[in-house]
Amino acid sequence: MLALAAYIATIFLANWAIQNFGLVPVAPGLMAPAGVYFAGLAFTFRDLVQEKLGRAWTVAAILAGAGLSSFVSPEFAVASGVAFLVSEILDFAVYTPLRRRNWIGAVLASNAVGLIADSALFLWLAFGSLEFLAGQVVGKTWVTLIAVALLWNWRRRLAPEPFAGP
What CA–CA distance (Å, rounded) separates 96 from 94? Predict the structure, then answer.
């Protein structure tokens, strides 16, 4: 499944970007580790994997992404693996009960909860500081909103509203 591969890749690429680019600007006056953009995209892929393949595959994808990341940086791999697993537990608590009532609302709510928890935990484990928390949250929020808008549009095109007639 494409979402599974994309989820694993975004976890790896987030760690690769930090290792290779360090800090990047995300808004005027705000910096964040370069993996912020890939990590923001990962939350939407995570919901797709959970939706199509279930929780076990989602956790396996986190472990696979962290495992691949260990070739880039063992420290970032552990920090991102733990942060993604904790944010995944929070995602289960938010996304799962909401997804049947309002799928797009469930994605937005779970991504919001996940990106804040993931950001704080990752920064603390990887750098011992929350100095770039605001940048992490802003950067991930921008990417998440773009990804969710594209996904919503794609789903809407696949299942258009029924024609009501004249």
Answer: 6
d(CA 111, CA 107): 6
- Name the CA radius of gyration of the chain, rounded: 16
Q: What is the pLDDT of residue 160?
A: 55
By the 10 Å C-beta count (0-12 exposed, 13-18 middle, 19+ buried), 112 is classed as middle
- The rounded average pLDDT for each run of 10 residues, N- to C-terminus, in the chain (166 residues) is 92 94 95 93 86 90 91 92 88 84 84 90 95 95 89 74 44
Domains and CATH numbers, the chain: 2-158 (1.10.1760)
Compute the 3-state secondary structure of the chain and give helix, strand, coil in percent, each to the nearest 5: 80, 5, 15
Alpha-carbon span 94 to 103, nearest angstrom = 11
Q: Is residue 143 within 8 Å of residue 111, measured between CB atoms?
A: no
Q: Are 58 and 49 in contact (CB under 8 A)?
A: yes
| pTM, rounded to two decimals | 0.84
